[in-house]
């Protein structure tokens, strides 16, 4: 029997609260990095591991965590991940040296991966109809976008007033409350059991392969790291190929090859990669533009971003679900991508000495409109066709695509902006930076244009969920 409406709403609140914690944590840490570097004695290069340690664990474990959600029950994996995230936050807040902080951040990434990997699958099962699902995913998208913008403000205030450890310690009481509340309201759906396919060698191959792949992507914008990035990327490809070979031969594969062979899944998640490359890259580049070209401080930058999540929230909560219920996710995605493209093209035309109200605010609002309908609809399409017993795997796959896209977009747009600024010989520093960042906005627009072409040409008919085989072993090996 399906959970009641109030219970489903409470479960959605728990899932969104954890997602908000993850997004807030990532953004707040970025704001606090200078203080962390100074107080713990990090080198300029070493402080990047405060971010990279988290990202490597998070991205590397998503597929494994998604599969464990199918096998053990998504609610168990979610609560376990939340518990690890909270404990690791405590360790980070109490860290007295760089080594302990990096270890804590790695554990935070692991806990975040186990919780985040099953969220989309749980939402899809809690809200099966298109209209309900679009509204639920709209709320989920709002918490993510709002958390990213709010993190700049909260990070600046907390770090300045109370010091950097509090940005981690604040997760502890909030996480404990969410854990106990979630234990009571999350639907306790049974899993298939570990016998249905937990391939340990395959899990090791894909986890290490994804981690090395993300590491290679994050280092692509650094000329001095070109050789390590190339070696890491090659090793990642070898490990991922080894994983595919293992899945073909394993009696109980971690991920059925029939799942990876679905054209729709791969095409939809290619669009996911492009959308999140745009979103994460834009957030990073625009934050630098506002600070280095317009002269805003960290708090001012956060406030400058606020109109976008506000618009995203209004559109996600009150517009996206109605549009999706009436037209379906694909037409809504096309409209959202076209709107997002228009916003980026407007940003690329911002003058060297812009006015926030006249030049920055309009494209930020337009982008908010686009993102507000794009994210829920592409997530729906990425999850389309997944049988109930596969939602954890498909959710983990989609989350991995999001993380890979975000890392790729951030690295490429940062590299494009830096290269263009360096090539602007004879220009003032502000003029050179302006040239670099506006070119990065155009490259981001290219990502959106590619996503629009893929959606229009290759995502024509979303598949319907297939009925799972009655034998759990057959699900894993089909």
Automatic annotation (TrEMBL):
It is a multi-pass membrane protein. GO terms for cellular component: plasma membrane. This is Drug resistance transporter, EmrB/QacA subfamily. The chain crosses the membrane at residues 46-65, 77-96, 102-124, 136-158, 164-186, 198-219, 225-245, 266-290, 302-320, 332-351, 363-389, 439-459. SUPFAM superfamilies: MFS general substrate transporter (SSF103473). It is found in: Cell membrane. GO terms for molecular function: transmembrane transporter activity. Keywords: Cell membrane, Membrane, Transmembrane, Transmembrane helix, Transport. It holds the Pfam family MFS_1. It comes from Paractinoplanes atraurantiacus. Residues 11-463 form the Major facilitator superfamily (MFS) profile domain.
